[in-house]
Amino acid sequence: MGTDLHAPLGRNLKAARKRPGILRIGQIASSICLVAIGVFSLYTAFRSDGLEQSKPPAAQDTSLAPPTDTIQQPPTGNQAANGMPRSEPNSGANVERMVTGDGSVVTRYSPRSRDGGPVLVDAMQIGQDPRMAAIPNDDLLEETPFGRLPITGPDGRRPMDQYARPWSGTRGIRIAIVLSGLGLSQTGTQRAIQQLPEEITFAFAASGNSLQRWMQDARRGGHEILLQVPLEPFDYPANDPGPDTLLTSKPVARNLESLHRAMGEITNYTGVMNYLGGRFLSDPKALEPVMRDIGKRGLLFLDDGTSAQSKTAVIAKGTELPYAFADMQLDGQVDVNIILQKLDELERIARRNGQAIGVASAFDESIDAISKWSEEATMRGIEIVGVASLVNDPKNP
């Protein structure tokens, strides 16, 4: 039968055929199961539940293309037709609307970069964008033989609004301090711009030097500015305010020419302030056409309050001119301590009436006193504002 019964057991037998290891097969199966479980877990974790934003196609670079489910709104008041953002002083956010899986819209707000791409400045905003404060709004200027003069814009926008210094909007105690005579002294003007807080209003004399340069420096520093126009005082010509002084004896057309020549010296001012002018301010016949022209151009008028016979209020109301009176001359005596006392008195007036306006000249002593007092007044809860926020405005009673 081919079997040697006499051979020792286990001798001369053929080697047994090797079979696949059962243990190895089990290990492979277990690994496959673990991988399947992991894949299923990942699928479950990233499966859309209808609340997250849809992803753009994989072939697109998400850093270059917007999400496909972002609602593309037509240009609004804060967006130009080309999609560029408009500057909006009351908002610091980008707004993005997204459609969720169930069809609802989710609005997401994120901080807006201040130094990214180009920004279009909206001429209709309150105040002027600080980055563009030294540049005039061309819509509020007209070309004349006397230079570029302020006008009300085609949409009704006034230079008084465009160049006004923004304020908090709270009806607390408010004080405006106007430093006048800037541009007459180079060192005094530079010192005022460098040392005074941005809340102080600057008034530039039309007969000053390098006015355009100083205007730009002041505006970049956050200051609201006025233009001082020379008006005839009672003791003229012994007391002469300078060339192109508006006189009661001049024809109306000549006075308007002098006014326009002064207006053309700088831009970006909210209004006009008198330089001297006791006699002129007391003469309704001479004053009325000048006030009317100032109001028509969308400017305010600040009366420094030195003339008890001034007709400013009566005429301003008849011409719908925004106007204000200074409550106090702060540096009739050029002494730091006396000026500080006057500022304290101005504060008492403001606490009694809710607001007050003080006027000073660009003396070193005045600058030092105003700088010191302003810092302390802020800590006492007083808001120092631009003068435009304190005027009597017929359009905003």
Automatic annotation (TrEMBL):
InterPro entries: Divergent_DAC (IPR006837), Glyco_hydro/deAcase_b/a-brl (IPR011330). Coiled coil: none annotated. The keyword Coiled coil does not apply. Residues 60-81 have a biased composition (Polar residues). Pfam families: Polysacc_deac_2 (PF04748). Keywords: Membrane, Transmembrane, Transmembrane helix. It comes from the Bacteria. The chain crosses the membrane at residues 21-46. Residues 52-96 are annotated as: Disordered. This is Divergent polysaccharide deacetylase family protein. It comes from Rhizobium mesosinicum. The lineage of its organism: Bacteria, Pseudomonadati, Pseudomonadota, Alphaproteobacteria, Hyphomicrobiales.
